[in-house]
Amino acid sequence: MGKTSKTFFPAAVALVSLAFVLLSLWSPRGRGYGPGGASLEASGLAASLVSRLAGAVEGVWRGYFSLVSAKAENERLRTALARHTRFITELEEVRVENARLRLLLDYKERLPSRTVAARVLAWEPGPFYQSVVIGAGSEQGVFPEAAAVTQAGIVGRVTEVSPGYSKLLLVTDLSSGVDAFISRNRVSGLMTGAGPGKLSLEYVRKNEDVRLGDAAVSSGLDGIFPAGLALGTVTFIDKMSMGFFMRAEVSPSVDLASLEEVLILLDPPVPLDWLRLSPDIRELYEKKGRRN
Questions:
Q1: Tens-place pLDDT, residues 55-98
Q2: Per-residue pLDDT averaged across 188-207, rounded?
Q3: How far apart are CA 216 and CA 213, in angstroms?
Q4: Residue 219 per-residue DSSP state
Q5: Cα separation of 123 and 196, whole Å?
């Protein structure tokens, strides 16, 4: 743009000067194409060229300012688009969160226990130890060994409590254990953590009827988790290993990798009447009582 204007302006000035010189030589008495006519023809041609050059220069400058204006407008529109895109993203996030919280609230209404909802604030993931910190503590009624759940199933249990925060041990932690059974036929076992995204159903005899796709739920016998809460789905069975028990891998019902909110059960499960559940134990207690 700079080189173009430097070329146009000197040429325009030279042609305007030439036009004035030729016009000064023109005689009003001249007729036809004598000296005066020739001067008029030349000056007209020069004026025409100057007019065209001036129009060209004006067009170039108008184009330049139009481009500058268009660039500014594009930048403004680009900024507005980015702002609206962020707004749409935030609205979508709010929509997804509302849908998730609505499911959690509906599930809360169906639970027999009082609950408190808490947001996951921090992760302490590792290859063996898996826990999270939540934004609810003793001031909200949370206590050690309280169960943590979502509408999808069991998350874990509380291991540490402060006034405003708590730490949850996830069911996938290697030190975690939940008394469980297969929902289809009540085959019992112990559900233990096997690392990120994995569970293992232990102490199930090889002759028991366990199949791929079977749903595993809590039995309620551990005194922490109420009976019937989802734990996961059987994805692998190995009955060829050494020993009396099969090896069964289970995929957790809860996607712990994307965990954002949990419900803490504030009412411990009702203690089980072991004497009613097991007549053999009742008989042993009665015999012991007669001996004493």
A1: 666 666 666 667 777 777 777 777 777 777 776 766 666 565 55
A2: 92
A3: 9
A4: -
A5: 12
| pLDDT score, position 108 | 62
**Distance of alpha carbon 48 from alpha carbon 43, whole angstroms:** 8
Domain ranges in the chain are 1-110, 115-268
pLDDT band at 172 (very low <50, low <70, confident <90, very high): very high
Handedness of CA 139, 141, 144, 150 (dihedral sign): negative
Say if residues 131 and 167 touch (Cβ distance below 8 Å). yes
> Which of the four CATH numbers 3.30.420.40, 3.40.50.2300, 2.40.10.340, 3.40.50.2000 does domain 115-268 have?
2.40.10.340
- Cβ neighbours around 256 below 10 Å, total: 21
Q: Quick one: CA torsion of 15, 18, 20, 24, rounded to 10 degrees?
A: -160
pTM over 0.85? The answer is: no
Cα 68 to chain centroid, rounded: 40
Separation CA 127–CA 193 (nearest Å): 11
